[in-house]
Amino acid sequence: MSNASTPTLLTVKQFPEKHKAFSENSLRFQIFNAKPRKTSRGEIAGNGLESALVRLGRKVMIDEAKFFEWLDRQNGHAAVETRAKAGGWSAKRANGVLHDLAEMTDDERYGVLVYLRRLAAERDA
Question: Where would a tag sit more exposed on the chain, N or C end, judged by fewer CB atoms within 10 A?
Fold first, then answer.
């Protein structure tokens, strides 16, 4: 029986099979750079992906939902969603902006879509 709160975990090999936009090598690069690390020149900050990773011994699995949240943060879209929520947008308001989409920037349109996707997921949960 499936639990709605159980995260979808994919191995590094499974993730690119499901999401063709990401290669196994690009994922391994991001995973390698996820944690802060020390070099002869000092410490290098991680990229923040560690929060989306589950490590079990040598096996590394990726939490699918957290990975895409991390990706949104990397591209600054989380800030757009925060602005939308701070503006007091409800689901009704977000749906009502469809006629305004032509005047919005790409980032604003993406922020609305992310917000609607999360509202739908919360409703279905």
Answer: N
